[in-house]
Write a structure and sequence with these properties.
It is a single chain. By secondary structure, the chain is of the alpha+beta class. It has a single domain, classed as Ubiquitin-like (UB roll) (Roll), CATH 3.10.20. The protein has three helices and five strands. A five-stranded mixed β-sheet has the order 2-1-5-3-4. The radius of gyration is 13 Å and the shape is globular. The termini are far apart.
Length: 103
């Protein structure tokens, strides 16, 4: 089954954990890609990432990770909302970014 190629940029600590050499991975995501669908495919391709981006039981995003699409923070959007056209077309990557905390 062929899907839509989605580019995903991961933070360094997750790339290290998954042994990903570059800054991005390309994932074949089913039609009508959503954040949830992308994460499903990412976790299937890289099982060591299960539980690192979202809680395995609740499937909620981990507090110190954010999702960006087309320079917009979409972390609080529904995980089932369609991704922007620029992500679906491959023009832009979906960025998973480690949040910075401190004071």
């Amino acid at each position: 089954m062929s899907g839509i190629p989605i580019r995903v940029e991961l933070p360094a600590h997750l790339r290290t954990l998954a042994r990903i050499a570059g800054h991005e991975v390309a994932l074949d995501v089913p039609a009508s890609p959503t954040i949830a669908a992308v994460l499903d495919v990412l976790e299937a391709a890289y099982p060591m990432l299960r539980g690192t981006i979202r809680d395995q039981a609740t499937r909620e995003r981990r507090a110190f990770l954010r999702f960006f699409a087309c320079q917009q923070d979409i972390s609080l959007d529904s995980p089932d909302a369609p991704l922007p056209a620029a992500i679906v077309s491959g023009a832009e990557p979906l960025i998973i970014l480690g949040a910075v905390a401190g004071g």
